[in-house]
Sequence to fold (473 residues):
Amino acid sequence: MRILGFGNPRASRAGGGWLNKLTVLRLGFGGMIALLLFSALEAYRIQHTAAGQAAETYSRFVQRIDTITRTRRLLYLGSINVRDYLLSEQPSRLDTLQAQLRQLRAEAGVELDQLQRAAGPQQSIAELRRMVADFWTALESAPRRTRDMQGSQVYEFVQSEIVPRRNATGTVLRELTEVTKDALRSSEAEFQRSRHSAVLRILIMMGLCVLVGLAVARFSLRHAARLEQESVRRFEEVAQAKKDLEQLSARLLEIQEDERRRIARELHDEIGQTLTALRIEISRAQAAWKAGSAGVQDRLEEARSLAEKTVQTVRHISLLLRPALLDDLGLAAALQWHVEDFSRRSGIPCSYVEEALADMLPDAVRTCVYRVVQEALNNCEKHSAATQVRLAVRQSEGELAVEIEDNGRGFALDRQGGSPGAAGLGLLGMRERVAMLGGSLKLDSGEGRGTRVWLTLPLPAPETAVAGAERNA
Fold:
């Protein structure tokens, strides 16, 4: 039951943009998690690619260095075999040398083919093939050309024909080794540049993650602070509502006791005394009639006057409890009578204006409007010191609006838009009545500028109202 506000809490909550904020938070957290996942996948891809590139680069380097080393070893083995041939005296040394040279040349051809398939300079490998072939030709021709040579001549042949070719081939192989090392260093530099670029991309993504995280954290903290403030405010409203309800309950019991006390006083002072006087007058009239006195007619006339006064008092009490006009003639007639009674009783002029007010209104609506107007005029009489009051009732399609305005001294509104003290409890009761019917009650007042009360109630469809009136009848 809502008695402190004047609107739909769900509508105000939706108007606060809670759903939009939750959507923003979800998108923010989702984007941050997506960036983190993408960063992790990118880091894994970079690491995997870098490891593969490094392994492939070093594998090519080792393969080329091994090929060059084996080729150099084969060339030196050929030279050593020729030297052994020249120093040997065995009859089968020529066959042995030829077999060795054929095998070494075949193995060298295989190594050169492997080196050719590697990613080396093609012109250098072609030159190496030519020089290696010339070296093997010189080695194979050594037995034939040194057949008739002696001692120093053989040595001169080796130094002039074999050693220069071996050295030249070795130089080319060293150059290929340096080229291979340069290629490795170039690959490493390219790998470092690629790695730095990848690291920079990861750092950028991590920076975006940090920025998004900071933004989401800031938004979350602000949203949490607003929710906490809203929760505190709601708690204070609930606590104040509980306190107001307790005060209202006590006030209702006090009003009930005051009403009973006033009714008892009216019954005792007015009706009881009038009935006692009526009984005395009837007794006197009876005694005069028995004595044959001439004052019987006057006694009976006085008794009749007392009976009429009693009837008027009973009607007045009945009107105070609930005016019969409200049920018999409708809301407009009851409000008109109450305004006239208020002006007569308080001496404050009160104007009454109605517009398109229907006769057939639900009983709950009629009772609510009448009691709100009654309480408002009662507060005006007791607290406002006004010299003019205006009451306007307007009915439109689906709604009933009531406005009560005075030119009194007004009062300062509290945090809930009400008035402190007994008048505040009266307003609390008015709001309770209106809230039960789904309406709203607004109050505007201030020191020295009077008070205005607006009441709006939703009205059911005409056929629903007619059915309700028939059930009440």
